[in-house]
Amino acid sequence: MEYATTSGDVMPTGGKIFITVPDLFFIPEFVFGGLVWILVASTHVNPPNPLGWVMFVSVFCFVFTTLWFFIFLCGGNQNSVWPTLDVVYHFVAVVFFLSASVGLASVTIGNGRLALAPDSLKIYRLDIAAVVMSYVATLLYFIHAIFSAIRWKRS
């Protein structure tokens, strides 16, 4: 595993994104962010707020991380502005996911008091899994943001 920026290149491209920190976090961010999206969508989105925010955040971050990943993979990130954009995007993703995680946990705690019927218990368990995945995604984006900031300072 290597750390991303040397003096010759601004950002890693191609297959190097799979072995450089922080870019190796792209795949886990896809997985855990996508799981939040799937788990929340598989339950009743009730109440619509804040669960609508959770859906927005998970879809937004999934789409933008996918776009970011392909830009890095294809080498479109070789301008000097990309380290800054990488830091900004990942800190925005952290703030979004943290706010969504707190809202999702709050709704899940509230719904836990009502989870007596078998169908309600299943939804409650899906919500718990979504909360866990949401906090894991938040942590992954946070780690990525920290290492992106270190790379930005070195570039």
Explain what the structure shows.
The protein is mainly alpha-helical and 155 residues long. Helix content is 72%, strand content 3%. A two-stranded parallel sheet has the order 1-2. About 3% of the residues have low confidence.
Structural class: mainly alpha
User: How many distinct folded domains?
Assistant: 1
- Count of DSSP-assigned helices: 4
Q: What best-fitting shape do the alpha-carbon axes yield?
A: elongated
Order of H and E elements = EEHHHH
Mean of the pLDDT scores?
Answer: 87
Amino-to-carboxy terminus distance: 19 Å
Radius of gyration from CA coordinates: 17 Å
Spatial strand order of the main sheet: 1-2
Helix content: over 70%
The biggest sheet, with number of strands, parallel, antiparallel or mixed sense and barrel status, is: 2 strands, parallel
> Would you count the extended β strands for me?
2
**Contiguous runs where pLDDT drops below 50 for at least 5 residues:** 4-8
The fraction of residues assigned to DSSP E strands is under 5%
Summarize the structure.
Keywords: Lipoprotein, Membrane, Transmembrane, Transmembrane helix. Helices cover 72% and strands 3% of the residues. It has 155 residues and is mostly helical.
